[in-house]
Amino acid sequence: MEAPSTRLPIFYIFLLLSVSSPIFIQKSLADGVTPDEAKQLRDEVREMFYHAFNGYMKHAFPLDELRPLSCEGEDSLGGYALTLIDSLDTLALLGDREQFAASVEWIGKNLRFDINKTVSIFETTIRVLGGLLSAHLIASDHTTGMKVASYENQLLDLAEDLARRLLPAFDTPTGIPFGSVNLLYGVDEHESKITSTAGGGTLTLEFGVLSRLTDDPIFEQVTKNAVRGLWARRSKLNLVGAHINVFTGEWTQKDAGIGTSIDSFYEYLLKAYLLFGDEEYLFIFQEAYGAAMHYLFNDPWYVEVNMDSAALVWPLFNSLQAFWPGLQVLAGDIDPAIRTHTAFFSVWKRYGFTPEGFNLATLSVQHGQKSYPLRPELIESTYWLYKATRNPRYLDAGRDMVASLQYGARCPCGYCHISDVEFHKQEDHMESFFLAETVKYLWLLFDLAAGPDNLVENGPYKYVFSTEGHLLPATPQISLVREHCSYLGAFCKSSVESESDARNNATSVEEAKHSFSEGTTSTETPPSSDFDELTSTTGLIRGVCPGLTHGQKFGIIYIGSTSTDDESVTEREAAQRHLTVVVTDHNSGHSTSDEKNVDNSQEHREEDVMNDPHPI
Question: What positions does the entry give for Ca(2+) binding (predicted)?
């Protein structure tokens, strides 16, 4: 019998992880990792950062990225000092005021986006837009201890200019954006209409923060519509595929998983709820997470299945899946996170790194997926699990990861991709996310063990990490908008209610906080008038802002595939069947649909998986 999972309400686990709570603190560190050694490891990771950062600044800046073997630079995204932008909040986290201020000033004076460059919507958003916004929020706020005296919102202005140049990509019939856009001329008439689920569904944090900082709702609206467009086209099993046509809404690759091309779609559903307090994201996450755990989880591994039939497609661990245990920690589902992390780390221990693909049937590196491009996902999950449990095994894991990077990936001017994890062959490339994420999470891990003294652990706000590891603070301006409040005593815009209505709404807020661990699905739909009640923004009330009652928890329209296996089910019936409403069910462990695996006879097949250049 499977051990029951330890699951805590999302708000509670997030709050506990955001402060130094004695509930989680243990005095013992890992075997052999004394407090002094934890400090030494933290300092070693700091040196790793500066070895790579100084190598970039000396040999590659202002080009995008460093070639650490040849000590040269290259433009890989847009030709606008990508690695410097991606490194800004890591500099702030390390307390490097001088370099942070100098970098902010240079970017403010020299960066321009009115250039004839076609760029990835996804990569530009998470790396450049996210980097600019995070640095702006640090440089403009004296409570962070890193305020730049000469700073006058130049990075925010650049972020807004960049985002407006990305907006033409969202002009599609489905609301799901094109994958690329030209910063000067918009979307090319020959641009591909196929995009990945992660590419269309991992934009909400950066665009949402920008809307709140500029008071322009357009950025948040288009990215939320993209999420709705993807979720509306989910299968009957509440699964989404890997690639979709942004014009027709038809899935062009129906492999459902938690890794390549889909991963951060799940991540941003939960994190958008945590940062913005928007219950709609929580409702979608609950349904999507429940389906993933029901159909994709083969304890402790995750597989890929057909989104319609749940037939096994791909018995593969790919390195992008390694973010999942960290996401489960944020969701409060800790037991499966522990087991999965143990399995994933066993692959790292075997090769010294995680290959892009590890075949679970042959227990060997997948052909054509032998590289390790300095990805941060497993390190990220190690940090979150140590933060939640204080289990010493995660410091041991972190120490092993440092050793692997130092002895296997260190190059004359930085850190190299590993092109073959079996032979530790180096490749002359260093992605900007190595400085934005990989060393950041390692440093946070050992700083936490040594006695944290940094912006994330001791700063003025709780922070949500973007998928690029950028720090997005839950400030009142960002998080306390409209009806969405995260703590008692907050000021929120709403209509004035009677005392009894306020009590009812206060109860519903608590229900919403607990609904993840108690939810299931229903086919009830609320009356249309309930939707109007959700948009009230007049007045100002102090206290718990109006939440959603269970009768108001609305469904997301389901758009069935034009070709279904069951011709007897009409599109209207399918749509009605898959309107979802969260209700309380204390006997439910995960939220799942009633459909089971209806096709286990499909032969296993293997096909080349697109190696996305960045951990989405």
Answer: 467
3-state secondary structure of 318: strand
Given the structure tokens 């330890």, which residue do they identify?
6
599 flagged as catalytic: no
pLDDT band at 31 (very low <50, low <70, confident <90, very high): low
Query: Is 263 a residue of the active site?
Result: yes
Nearest to 87 by CA among 62, 67, 69, 70: 62
How is residue 333 written in tokens? Answer: 């589902």
d(CA 331, CA 415): 33
What are 75-92's pLDDT values in tens digits? 999 999 999 999 999 999
| d(C-alpha 179, C-alpha 277), whole Å | 28
Phi, psi of 37, rounded to the nearest 5 degrees? -70, -35
Element (H, E) at 314: strand 312-314
pTM: 0.78
CA 491 distance to own-chain centroid: 28
Query: Residue 181 contacts by C-beta under 8 Å, 6 or more apart in sequence?
Result: 118, 119, 121, 165, 166, 168, 169, 187, 191
Asked if pLDDT for residue 5 goes beyond 50, the answer is no
Q: Which residues contact 43 (CB under 8 A, 6 or more apart)?
A: none
State the DSSP code for 609.
P
Tell me whether residue 280 is one of the annotated catalytic residues: no
Q: Is 532 a catalytic residue?
A: no
Catalytic-role residue among 37, 280, 333, 356 = 356
Alpha-carbon gap, residue 323 to 317, rounded angstroms: 12
83 is in an annotated binding site: no
* CATH architecture assigned to 78-236+451-484: Alpha/alpha barrel (1.50)
Judge whether residue 494 has pLDDT over 90.
Answer: no
Q: Which of 263, 333, 380, 468 is catalytic?
A: 263
**Which ranges of 296-437 would DSSP assign to H, the alpha helix?**
324-331, 334-351, 377-389, 393-404, 433
pLDDT at 480: 78
Instruction: Tally Cβ neighbours within 10 Å of residue 496.
Output: 11
Average pLDDT over every residue of 467-472? 98
CB 439 within 8 A of CB 52: yes
Cα 208 to the chain's mean position, in Å?
A: 14
| Active-site residue, selected from the candidate residues 64, 89, 96, 123 | 123
Delimit the domains of the chain by residue range: 78-236+451-484
Active-site pick, 220, 333, 377, 612: 377
Three-state DSSP class for residue 86 = helix
Kindly list the distances between the CA atom of residue 46 and the CA atoms of 50, 131, 288, 413, 501, in Å, as whole numbers in the listed order. Answer: 7, 20, 38, 15, 53
H helix or E strand, kind and range, residue 271: helix 263-276
> Which stretches of 405-498 are DSSP H helices?
433, 439-450, 455-458, 476-479
CA distance 199 to 122: 5
